[in-house]
Amino acid sequence: MNNSFRTADAGSALRKNKFPGFGTVAGLSKNGKYAVLACFYTGKSDEEKNVKFNDFGDEVMLMPRLAGKPMGGRPLVSSPVKKSGNKVFVNDGSLTDLMCSTSEQGRCCVGALCGLEASNKTRVGGILTFGEKFGYKLFCVKPADEEASSNNAMIFSYASVAGVGHLVTEFGRDGKPFSGEPQRVTVLNSAESFTEKLWKSLGDDRAALLVRYISLSSGRVTTRTRGLD
Q1: Could you tell me the pTM of the whole model?
Q2: Which residues contact 196 (CB under 8 A, 6 or more apart)?
Q3: Can you say how many angstroms the Cα of residue 166 is from the centroid of all Cα atoms in its chain?
Q4: Rounded to 10 degrees, what is the CA torsion of 51, 150, 25, 57?
Q5: Domains along the chain?
Q6: Is the torsion defined by CA of 48, 207, 157, 17 positive or negative?
Q7: 61-69: long-range contacts at Cβ-Cβ below 8 A with a sequence spacing of 24 or more?
Q8: Could you tell me which of 223, 227, 199 has the C-alpha nearest to residue 56?
Q9: What does the alpha-carbon distance between residue 19 and residue 30 come to, in Å, rounded to a whole number?
Q10: pLDDT digits (tens, 9 = 90+) for 77-112
């Protein structure tokens, strides 16, 4: 079998990464009925773990778990997941508004990512597109050199395959910013089962997880969240 088609267990892939930072999974359920999106935060400190997801339907907000307390340098309110037209955008919250406004203006979201102001932060996320056929893109924007004089933007475009998703994380297994390609992982039929698998596999650094299953026939959305008590 061609190794490029080997699909890893999503839980195993996460357990092998000691600190993924922010991460996203996008794909299609095994039965082919649901577009699947997951995103999560991990943190080393109490401040970095002071996050929770609030689901408002077309927009998911990231807020402090403990009101008024810092969130590890993150804005006190941001939107990691946002729907605009036939697209759903996901990232750590720093780019969703930009991608939504770019899409609403009829411009190319990929071009907007490539034109971002240079930063020393690695930003990963995804764009899910619905229509005659579901498909998705994952992306990584990171500095081109040590001085962060410019950005490199990597875009990965995927056709939907039943039971297959792709995982992209801010940091790789070696602790360095993401490089290479997103990992091909198995996606389950059950939102609850997939949520539990991902949450348990994030380990001691886990902070918050959101999983969303979107019916391709009816558009019905099932959302599951996990967080710290």
Answers
A1: 0.94
A2: none
A3: 10
A4: 60
A5: 3-227 (3.60.20.20)
A6: positive
A7: 62/93, 62/208, 65/208, 65/227, 65/228
A8: 223
A9: 28
A10: 899 999 999 999 999 988 999 999 999 998 888 788
Q: In what order do the strands lie in the sheet with 52-55?
A: 52-55, 59-63, 78-84, 87-91, 123-129, 135-143, 151-159
Confidence of residue 1 (pLDDT cuts 50, 70, 90): very low
Query: What is the mean pLDDT of the segment spanning 11-34?
Result: 97
Q: How many CB atoms lie within 10 A of CB 65?
A: 17
CA-closest candidate to residue 141, choices 158, 157, 109, 118: 118
Q: Long-range contacts: 170-176, Cβ < 8 Å, 24+?
A: 170/20, 170/21, 170/22, 170/23, 170/92, 170/122, 170/123, 170/124, 171/17, 171/19, 171/20, 171/21, 171/122, 172/17, 173/16, 173/17, 173/18, 175/18, 175/19
Distance CA 88, CA 84 (A): 6
